[in-house]
Amino acid sequence: MTGQQRFRPIPDRLTKRAALSAIRRVDAMFSARGPAFRQLAMSWAANVAGDTLVAIALAGTLFFDVPNTAEARSNVALYLAITMAPFAIVAPLLGGLFSRFPVYRGVITFSCVARGVFALIMMTGLDTIWLFPLAFTMLVLSRLYGISKSSMMPVAIDEPTALVSANARLARIGIYAGAVVLPLGVAVSQIGPELALLLSAGFFLFSGFLSLGLPDPRTAEVAAGLAHDQQTIPVARASMRSLRISRLATAGVRFINGYLILLLAFAFQASTQRALDFGALVAAAGAGYGLASYLAPWLEKHLREEPMVVAALAVEAGAAFLAAQGLSLAAAAAVAGAAGIAWGVAKFGFDGLLQRSVPPGKRGGAFTRAETLFQLAWVVGAIIPVLVRIDPELGMTIAGIAALTAQTIFVAGLLVDGPDGGT
């Protein structure tokens, strides 16, 4: 016993050192871009945790619990309609809201507190007709947070030129937050979805509390706006056309992503392990997006934002053409991973371009229009394999051709001079 007690402190010290090292790495991840970014990142992490718990609480029999493929297609079509509805109905209202009241910190706080309240209300309405209206409201409020977060990014970082890297870092933090809370959510949902919703309410309210420490855009962005007006408006005007074309090309990446994911999902829907197969595809896509959050900062040092979108389309085209030679679960996972990389690189690049080019007071409206277009593109792409039965290998070839076509049009649009305009 004495010998064992003598050696116990060694692993204890190693455990403490490992824990302290992990804490320091996490703190460095949050603090790398300054105190304002740290506050935004902490609020974002809590927000993602809350959204993840809501998704787990509402997970049902949409796709995997129905053996009939036709019924699965109907359920997926209904889901796509629900995910698009918040954008189609509320986007014009959000655009007007951000144009009239571009105070993004207050919108972030309101979104978090409101979702916390609605999560508590939803606990009592899981088996009632009010579930869908409540879920719809949560989707709208979540989008409100995301747009405000992106609009505030230039104010929250010490180096306004490192926007792509900051966007990628924030995305990486969100991925880690979701991954950490996922097993907790799955565990508590086994007791009851109400408990997952209760935890989500706590995360949302905590996120709202953290958002109170964000810089006040009404003071921070006034100086930025004056500098923007005096120094960079000519540059911004020159880049408006590039921004519009990049927005369309990024929407093309999103369109192909939606098409590929649903095409692959139905390719394996008849499998006896369809849930595991689709889980592998989703995991691969998530891993690809996470990899893009590391790749984008490196690309930012060597490329402008526009070539990053070109590279994203090329990655999707190459992966689709390779998978068309012989589709297997491994090939499908590779395609999903490539799609995740492409979307991440394109999105981080486009967000940085918008944040750099658009004056502070107009960013909210610009992000609203862009996010609406991206979501619409994803839904339109996803609905094609839902409504039309497509041979998977032929579908891969079609996706590759579509990506190459979008890439060609994008590059041609950048090379041809045209009139400037708004966003």
Task: Write a compact overview of the structure shown.
The chain has about 425 residues and is an all-alpha fold. It has 14 helices and no strands.
Task: Provide structural commentary.
There is one protein chain. With 423 residues, the chain is mainly alpha-helical. It has one domain: Growth Hormone, Chain: A (Up-down Bundle), CATH 1.20.1250. It is 84% helix and 0% strand. Helix 7 runs antiparallel to helix 8. It is globular. It starts with a helix and ends in an 8-residue tail after the last helix.
Topology, please?
Layout: H1 2-7, H2 9-31, H3 35-58, H4 69-100, H5 104-122, H6 131-156, H7 163-191, H8 193-211, H9 217-267, H10 274-302, H11 305-323, H12 329-357, H13 363-387, H14 392-415
Helix pairs in contact: 3-6, 3-7, 3-8, 4-6, 4-13, 5-6, 5-8, 6-13, 7-8, 7-10, 7-12, 9-11, 9-12, 9-13, 9-14, 10-12, 11-12, 11-14
Instruction: Name the CATH class.
Output: Mainly Alpha
**Could you give me the name of the CATH homologous superfamily?**
MFS general substrate transporter like domains
- Based on the coordinates given, report the CATH architecture: Up-down Bundle
Share of helical residues: over 70%
- Tell me the overall shape: globular
- Residue stretches low in confidence (pLDDT < 50, at least 5 long) are 60-67, 222-236
Mean pLDDT: 77
Write down the CATH topology. Growth Hormone, Chain: A
**SS summary, helix count:** 14
Could you describe the largest sheet, including whether it forms a barrel? none
